[in-house]
From TrEMBL:
One of its GO terms (cellular component) is plasma membrane. This is Band 7 protein. It is found in: Membrane. Pfam families: Band_7 (PF01145). Its main location: membrane. It comes from the Bacteria. Belongs to the band 7/mec-2 family. Residues 135-292 form the Band domain.
């Protein structure tokens, strides 16, 4: 006895008999004989057949209700429903039901892995899409070189650059275009007079030819260290310790002049360099300290003798003035007597007009 069954509007049916596919059924009411197997499929989803897709596509009625998307081995496709990205299709043949939703498909050739600029960036936030892309960010102060399959393609400016994951390798090498401050670690240098010392050297540089730096220079920092260290060794090796200490400010300009041609060949320029510290061995520092102490003592002795000479000269000039002017001598005498009497509690003198003579006699006699 036939059984009544109904296929809803959002479903599609495939009828099987004894395991073999018979026909495609649209929404509606049907009477099925016993033993018939009706399988329903959600028309809003991708059609995943219970067997080889090509066998089912032999049914013209079924094929007319499906959108077939062919994605080749080097391709990838995005699925859009009502203008919104819903997922990714990998290589293979894919089938979607027609009619329920407005779908569109966009196929990309991954042999050109960079995503086109006209692709809506909101589509890249879909989890299935995120798994298939790689993003490289270049900051406003950076430039970058793009290599695809180990071949240089172009120089990239600031921005975000999106590429499909594929059999082709994609590498983005970046360089900072800002002024860089670098310190050369202290190293042992031998002076002309065989003294070992250490110099901490600093310099600034910036990239002026990013193409050369990114495509021709390997390990930029190491090359800079070697260049400046060799120039420092050349300068220090031709001067004695005393000459180096006297000409410390000249080291920076000398080193810059020496390395300038090499910096140009590396795509760089440098305008400032100088010595941060000169570190002497312990025994040399002790000797220098002793020399400094001796020099300061000698300077102090010279100053002391100069002051003593000036004081003696002043006394001589004062004596000459007193000898030539009795009144001045008398005033000076009164000044000293005043100072002396301040320290005496009581002095006895006789009356008369020669009071000062009596005071002088008393003070001279120790009374």
């Amino acid at each position: 006895m036939p059984l009544q069954t109904r296929i809803p509007r959002d479903r599609r049916g495939l009828l099987f008999k004894e395991g073999d596919y018979e026909k495609f059924l649209m929404p509606g009411t049907y009477f099925l004989m016993p033993g018939a197997d009706l399988r329903l499929f959600d028309a809003s989803q991708i059609f995943i057949p219970p067997g080889e897709l090509s066998i089912f596509l032999e049914d013209a009625a079924l094929a007319a209700q499906l959108d077939i998307v062919e994605v080749r081995q080097s391709e990838i496709a995005l699925v859009f429903e009502d203008g919104v990205c819903k997922g990714v299709l990998l290589p293979g043949r894919h089938a979607y039901w027609k009619g329920v939703r407005q779908r569109s498909f966009r196929v990309f050739d991954r042999s050109h892995p960079r995503l086109p600029d006209d692709l809506d960036r909101h589509a890249l936030r879909v989890p299935a899409v995120l798994e298939q892309i790689q993003v490289f960010s270049v900051q406003p102060f950076e430039k970058a070189a793009l290599f695809i399959d180990r071949k240089f393609v172009e120089i990239l400016g600031p921005g975000d650059f999106v590429f499909w994951k594929s059999a082709l390798s994609v590498d983005v090498t970046k360089v900072d275009m800002r002024i860089q401050h670098v310190e050369i670690p202290s190293q042992e240098l031998l002076t002309k007079d065989r003294v070992t010392l250490r110099i901490n050297f600093v310099f600034q540089y910036r990239v002026v030819d990013e193409m050369r730096v990114l495509t021709e220079v390997k390990d930029l920092q190491t090359q800079l260290y070697i260049l400046f260290q060799l120039a420092l060794r050349e300068y220090v090796g031709n001067l004695t310790l005393d000459e180096i200490l006297q000409k410390k400010e000249e080291i920076g300009p000398f080193v810059l002049d020496r390395v300038k041609p090499e910096l140009v060949s590396l795509g760089l320029e440098s305008s400032q360099a100088g010595v941060k510290d000169v570190i002497l061995p312990g025994e040399i520092r002790d000797i220098m300290n002793q020399v400094l102490i001796a020099e300061k003592r000698a300077q102090a002795n010279v100053i002391t003798r100069r002051e003593e000479t000036a004081s003696t000269r002043n006394l001589l000039n004062t004596a000459k003035l007193m000898e030539e002017n009795p009144l001045l001598f008398r005033l000076k005498e009164l000044e000293y007597m005043e100072r002396l009497t301040e320290k005496v509690s009581e002095i006895n003198v006789n009356g008369g007009s020669r009071l000062l003579d009596q005071l002088r006699s008393i003070l001279l006699s120790g009374q």
